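Handoff note, outgoing to incoming analyst
You'll be picking up this chain. Sequence as last confirmed:
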Amino acid sequence: MSETPSATVGCYALRQLLSHSRILLLQGPVGPFFSHLANFLDSSGHTVFKIHFNGGDDFFYRRQPAEHYTGTPEEWAGWVERYISDHRIQAIALFGEWRHYHREAWHVADRLGVAVYVFEEGYLRPDYITLERHGVNGNSLTSRNPEDYRSLPMPPRPEPRPVDHRFYRAAAYAMAYYLAAFFRRRRYPAYQHHRPLNPLTEGGAWLRSGWRKKMFALTERRTLRWLASPSMHKRFFLVPLQVHNDSQVRFHSRFESVEAFIREVVESFACDAPRECSLVLKHHPMDRGYTNYTRLIRELADQHGLGDRLIYVHDGHLPTLQKQALGVVTINSTVGLSAFFHKAPVKILGEAVYDVPGLVSTKPLDEFWQDPGEVDEALFVRFKRELIRTTQLNAGFYTPTSYRYAFDCTRQQSAEKPLCLVVSGGDN
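Most recent structure output, in case you need it:
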């Protein structure tokens, strides 16, 4: 399969956002990303509005004017509807579509015919962030029809600029955000955050994560070497776990929790998987400081008589595990997309942007264990190219040099339309 490399920086969704002249920003990722986005939009001739909900939003947004919402969550829908109408808002940009305030604003915007653009962590990490009109994953307008992609010519191979991710920069942003929210909480007396808004709790989680990373690197070293060895090649299924409060689990799957997902997958594996195969559950690195499923997994191993066939790891080189795996089972993790690259068949149990027959398995889970099938590599290349071109920005939320460069390049690129973006049934 011959491909020609091509540089990728901007995305069609960001150029779509630029087509609106009056843009409202709600909450962004922790850090100065939305402040820089506002500068970019302003320098491109747009009128930018911003609403702050807590002191962390206020702290990182160094532009004026901005509105401070101090009402209750119950009053928010009516308030934002008046704000959108009074300020003649044409588009809204936000990070995290399922936060309460964002969800209510999305419904109001849909009713008023105002476009909504959703930022999220990248579908194709580590060098991309996601921006989609309307929503992500289960709410994405991207086509799920494989024939839409098979009809495309073989595209160039994307060559993104590497993004310099720094764990401690993201941690510093998070700590600053939570401290500012805590010390300015009297200004926003009725605000309700989507997770505990306590700097001590959050700081403790980040410190715990750093300590656990070092500890598990030592205690799991032998297990990870064994999983990467020739003797384990295509002898195990990989289950990448998602963070415990992932909105993609709550709103784009039937599972009430990650624990419920673990229980169902382990039970199915115990009943239907070949006895010579093992099941490897991998903890999410961003959840390391918050959860530990060791006790649950030990109980399930005993309950189903799996013994050493049920393996739980916290770290490890993910591409190596994917290359070794017989198949990957996930709710809707972006790990599924990287698994295709490593030719690992994928079974999803939730709603995902990549739920395209030929990429993911359409078999029931009990049959997937017996025969996971193969990945259509040509289909994946075409799908990935369109996903990058339409929804991915070559940048990182916590790396200002990367997104400033991406903003500049997007402004210079032509507004080439996507080939496989579905715009019916929700194109608000």
